[in-house]
Amino acid sequence: MELQREDLLQFGRLILAVGTNSPTVVHNIPKAMEQFSRSYSAQVKDRVFWLLGMVTSNKAENIDTFINGLASQVMASFDASLHLDDQLNSELNRELENSRIVRLMTKLNFITERPDYSLDRQWSETGERFPIKLFRDYLFHQVDAQGNPVLDLGHVLGCLNKLDAGVEEKIVLTSRDDQICIIVTFKEMKRAIESAWQDLLKASRRAL
Length: 208
Description:
Layout: H1 2-20, H2 29-37, H3 42-51, H4 63-69, H5 71-111, H6 130-140, H7 153-165, E1 170-174, E2 181-185, H8 186-206
């Protein structure tokens, strides 16, 4: 029993040293407990007092008694930790989604209307890269029936997410003079954009 009491006493001193961020506080326990009390709840303070033998109790002096005395505090801390984990996961998922969207918009801007490829048939108005230009207009250059610009961020984000997922949903792409209409899926557009992006990467590596 004496050894067990000594272990509890040393445990109390350890908690006190960590709680006050000072390993020398054990030399002045009353002052240390005053500092400790300013940062921690009365329940935690009472448990540390108990460990240090400053509070008498008719309960058995063992670690189970200490833990039972802090049960509600432990559950509250555990619940707060779970909520923090959920918040961090939510923030991480949001950042991952943002990075995918930024990556897609960057690729689109690298690909569309490149002056260095103005004479390349693949990148012309009748070439296989032309639907990418129409898709860029579908995303960012929509107008209403009166010809006014439509600034619908939800439309842009929704389309980019569908593009990233490569869904089979069909959309109609129309040229600016309304003379050309193309029906494609987001999956086909994703494949076309990735193909054009890989071509640009190859060309940029050859230049190095």
